[in-house]
Amino acid sequence: MASPVLPACCVAFAAVVMVYAQRHSQLDTHIQYERLGADVTMRCGAMDWDAAVTWTANGTDIDESHLNGSHLVLRNVNLTHSGQYACYEGSSWHLKYQTYLKVGTSPKEPVLMCRSNNYPKGFYCSWHLPTPTYIPNAFNITVMHGPRELICEKDAFPKNRCHIRYLQLFSTVKYKVTLTVTNALGRNSTTITFEEFAIVKPDPPENVVAKAVANNPRRLEVKWQNPSSWPDPESFPLKFFLRYRPLILDQWQHVELSDGTSHTITDAYAGKEYIIQVAAKDNDIGTWSDWSVAVHATPWTEEPKHLTTEAQVAETTTAGTSSFVPPPTTKICDPEAVVGSGAVAVSWTVGSVLAAAGVLFI
Amino acid sequence: MKEGGHWDKGRQVGGADLSVIDHPPQVEWQGLDRTISLDSVDGVPDATVERWEELTAAERLSANLQAYRVFQALLGEVLEKQRTHLTPLDTDFHASIQSMLLQVTALAYQLEELLALLRHSEPPWEAAGPEDRDHRSFFEMKLRGLKVLQELAHWTVRSVRDLHQVTKHSQGSNTAYGGQAQE
């Protein structure tokens, strides 16, 4: 015959499990968002103000000095107040209320930028908040071209970026992009408008390599490649800007190159190590790219010093894929040709069209 | 670009084309504003194009030729208005417009030659756009001048790309074409 002690043990164990489950029940948990610096009062469910209760934060009992009757009062909350709060009836330890407190801020005006680094395929917009909100935010972006809404395809990563395909090219109609950010504590938005040409900015040139020229102590040969993101350099040619200086001087020297992906520096100081960078820009529109990765090189000396480039690894990986053509004639851009007169600026461009047309007659 | 030369400073839009509308003579000096809407100005060839990459050489050349034919007339009109009403004393500006007009004319001529060379038919001369209304206010004249230069700037950017595409494709079919020409 079975001992009566065993069922009694089982009942007691079941009771303990029930109480434990009640204390740790997740069923009624909800999230409560509060602003940084706010005073927060929590009620213990439907319990009366004068009921005896116990509050816990992340499982630890809260000192009674934070109670106003059965209400929990948290003054001037900060991020450390975030956590799980629970309230139990004083004598029975029945869970009466449970919440997850998240302290944060409403979003400030988001920072939004759009850029085409793969013109004429499309452009992308990316965004971020100037300050963290500490709570989840939802972003919604709307891209309009005149009256037409365009689809902005979001990246899986990074999540703060989306891509738009150009449906029209050479348009004077402005794009209007609105980004709205919403969280539990508020919302904000920012709108930018721009023209198609204004946001064209290539990525920096790639695989920049600089090396000494044998038997020539004042020359450095620099070559690079178009940014791989630029889809059609043949029809949308880039021009380049090269800057270089000896490490011992602060003053950069510049040279603008209307074509070609190489240049020979002819005025280097003998024996001095140089730092060299290249930037790219569409021939007619948009802005200059950021500077490429810096490379270092020292002109040839009779007893060769350390000839080096930071891009040597890249050079070996791309060896044979690019031809090293003779350096193009250096063209120093005359600023007046661009900004001197609106009419002249058009003439200048028309001139380049004529030149392009001329190619066809050759 | 920080050290990219002073002509790029503060010119987020960059490029030769947009300096037309940035430039004081057309915008500030004539009392206009860069944000002003030019939507109401009609009759100016629009460079906007969809599916640009899919255009044939003939379509590209025809569209360009048609546009520059209209620009010849429009630039003449702009020049006349500047001389007569808006900037009668600014002969340098008139000379610049005149120079542009000559280049546009030369370009239209070259486009006609190209069409002939590539054995494409010339587009018909389109009926003249809306008659230039003498009763336009000075402000409307200024807006129209700005619109003409703005669209011309976009057309020149487009044309360079169009001609690159035509070159690329004609080089691709050059052998066949050359063979025919020699026969």
From TrEMBL, chain A:
Coiled coil: none annotated. Keywords: Cell membrane, Disulfide bond, Glycoprotein, GPI-anchor, Immunoglobulin domain, Lipoprotein, Membrane, Receptor, Repeat, Signal. Residues 37-87 form the Ig-like domain. SMART domains: FN3, IGc2. GO terms for biological process: positive regulation of cell population proliferation. The keyword Metal-binding does not apply. One of its GO terms (molecular function) is ciliary neurotrophic factor receptor activity. One of its GO terms (cellular component) is external side of plasma membrane. SUPFAM superfamilies: Fibronectin type III (SSF49265), Immunoglobulin (SSF48726). It is found in: Cell membrane. It is a lipid-anchor; GPI-anchor. InterPro entries: FN3_dom, FN3_sf, Hematopoietin_rcpt_L_F3_CS, Ig-like_dom, Ig-like_dom_sf, Ig-like_fold, Ig_sub2, Type-I_Cytokine_Rcpt. Pfam families: fn3 (PF00041). Belongs to the type I cytokine receptor family. Type 3 subfamily. This is Ciliary neurotrophic factor receptor subunit alpha.
UniProtKB/TrEMBL annotation, chain B:
It comes from the Eukaryota. InterPro entries: 4_helix_cytokine-like_core, Ciliary_neurotrophic_fac_CNTF. The keyword Cytoplasm applies. GO terms for molecular function: ciliary neurotrophic factor receptor binding; cytokine activity; growth factor activity. Gene3D superfamilies: 1.20.1250.10. The keyword Cytoplasm applies. GO terms for cellular component: axon; cytoplasm; extracellular space. It is found in: Cytoplasm. Its main location: cytoplasm. Keywords: Cytoplasm, Developmental protein, Differentiation, Growth factor, Neurogenesis. GO terms for biological process: astrocyte activation; ciliary neurotrophic factor-mediated signaling pathway; negative regulation of neuron apoptotic process; positive regulation of axon regeneration. CNTF is a survival factor for various neuronal cell types. Seems to prevent the degeneration of motor axons after axotomy. Belongs to the CNTF family. PANTHER family: CILIARY NEUROTROPHIC FACTOR. This is Ciliary neurotrophic factor. The lineage of its organism: Eukaryota, Metazoa, Chordata, Craniata, Vertebrata.
